[in-house]
Structures are given as C-alpha cells and as structure tokens.
Amino acid sequence: MQKVKEKIIEGILLFCSSVTILTTLGIIIILTIETVQFFKDVSIIEFFTGTEWTPLFANKKFGILPLVSGTLLTTFIAILVALPLGLTIAIYLNEYADKRFKAIIKPTLEVLAAIPTVVYGFFALTFVTPILQSLIPTLGGFNALSAGLVMGIMIIPYVSSLSEDALSAVPNSLREAAYGMGSTRLQTAFKVMLPAASSGVIVSVILAISRAIGETMIVAVAAGQEPRLTLNPLNSVETITTYIVQVSMGDVPQNSIEFRSIFAAGITLFGLTFILNNVSFWMKRKFQQKYE
Predict the structure, then answer these.
(1) Distance CA 64, CA 50 (A)
(2) Distance CA 93, CA 234 (A)
(3) Which of 104, 166, 215, 283 is at a distance of 20 to 30 A from 135, taking alpha carbons?
(4) pTM as predicted
(5) What pairs with residue 62 in β-bridges?
(6) What are phi and psi for residue 52, nearest 5 degrees?
C-alpha cells in the first residue's frame, strides 16, 4: 500500500514538473508553424535586415529592426536605472542594514514587482513624462525615456533581491578574513563580497534584462506606437510586445499576413530571451568554477 501511494505521488510530481516543459514546447510549436507560414510570403532576409516596419499600411514593409531597436533602447535605459540602484540596495541590506530593518524593507521592496504593469504605464505617462517635459521642452508625450525609466524602477526588485540573496550565500569567513586583513566595510563589500557573489549578481541582472525585454504595458502606454530605427530616447518608439498587443486587439483578420507577423515578431522575442537565459546559465557556471 505504501509503495502504491509513493508511485501516485511520484506520478503527480512528474506531471507537475512536465507542465512547464509541455507548455514551452506548445508555445514553440505554435510560433514555429505560424512563422513558417509567414516566411512563405515574406523574405527572411528582408525580415531581419529591413529598416521599415509597416505591416498595417498599404505599402507593407516587414523589417523587424525598428521594433528590435525600440525594445533594446527601452531595456537599456531600464538597466541603467535598475543596475546601480539594485546593487546599491543589495549591498546596503547585506552589509549595513540592521536585521530588523532588512526584514521590513526587503519584502516591501519586492512589492514593486507585484504592482500591475499597466499602473506603471499610466504612472510613466501622467507623472514621469510631464516632469521630463518640464526639463526637456522638446520631449513628446510618448517617448522611450519615460518608459525606460519607469521600467527600470519596476525591475529594481529583480536585481536587488536576487543580488542580496547571492551576497547572503557567500561564506561569512570571507568577510571575517577581509576584516582581519584591515579592510573597511566598504572595501569588503565591493572587493570581496561582490566578486564572490558575482555569479548570482550577473544572473539577477540578466533575468532583469529578460523581464524588461518582455515588458508590454509600460511601453504600450508610455513609449508610443511608432516603429522607427533610432537610438534617441527622446523619440517615440514601438517595441515587439507593443506591436503584438496592437495587432491582437482584433482589428486584423486572422490568417492574414499581418496577423501572422505577430508570430514572427514573437519568435524573435523568444529568441532574444532564450539567448539571454543561456548566457546567464553560462556566466553562472563560469563564475562558480572560478571561485570554487
């Protein structure tokens, strides 16, 4: 009887662990089938090298580069905000903060990740953008800068929380050895603890980048819907996720080339995040071997 119960539990656990794998396979299969249909009508070379994206216009162009540049631009701005702030918070919580203060602040900080992203989007549009316009009079109502800044605020918990966990996992003997050698608390934090926790810190940063690349509502509300190949954060841009939302609203007939373009854009986004995740895995293994 005991063996039967164990087999049942084992089967349940196997099923639960298989759900994510099966879901991922299902997504890949759907994206691949629709994307193959799309590339029967559109040149794959044009898709990855073209500089114009106008699938919904009369003169249709299917160059994905404007969407990729908009996605990477807002992500870059977000990381410029989240990386220094997140690492500073992580080091402070791990090296300087009182345990009771840390027990309150860390969960409070993680609440930022639980706020609906559409709220962040309207916050960027109605609060951050007007402030930026008072500083930069030529700034438009929709721009990559506002969306990127607020997206950076949103992903701070990903950097700070995971980096703090990585710092906490470093053996306390390293800290004590640094103090024994005469290092100050600041020197110990940046020259001993941070390098020792570098694998976890790098993974947290790459995870935050992946989260920013896949963000939808902030860029849809605050960045605009103008696909343009630009690196100017003051311009309105369109990201891959924004375009997918735009087409998915129901105005484009299904099975049309315009509708299938969202699957091609989606598999491009999937490829970007897949590469980042593999880079994070490789970096984690590399730094773990370095410090073992």
Answers:
(1) 6
(2) 35
(3) 215
(4) 0.86
(5) 53
(6) -125, 135
In this prediction, residue 68 carries a pLDDT of: 92
Distances from the Cα of 16 to the Cαs of 8, 21, 144, 172, 273, in angstroms?
A: 12, 10, 40, 37, 24
Q: Are 271 and 277 within 8 A, CB to CB?
A: no
What distance in Å separates the CA atoms of residue 220 and residue 212, rounded to the nearest whole number? 13
Give the pLDDT band (50/70/90) at residue 290. Answer: low
Would you give the end-to-end CA distance of the chain in angstroms?
45
pLDDT band at 203 (very low <50, low <70, confident <90, very high): confident
Q: Using the 8-state DSSP alphabet, how is residue 41 labeled?
A: T
The separation between CA 52 and the C-alpha centre of its own chain, rounded to angstroms, equals 25
**Separation CA 131–CA 20 (nearest Å):** 42
CA distance 122 to 221: 7
Question: Long-range contacts of range 55-62, CB-CB < 8 Å, 24 or more positions apart?
Answer: 55/247, 55/257, 55/258, 55/261, 56/246, 56/247, 56/252, 56/258, 60/257, 60/258, 62/261, 62/264
Q: What are phi and psi of 264, to 5 degrees?
A: -65, -40
pLDDT, residue 105, reads: 83
Q: At what angle do helices 65-91 and 144-168 cross, to 10 degrees?
A: 40
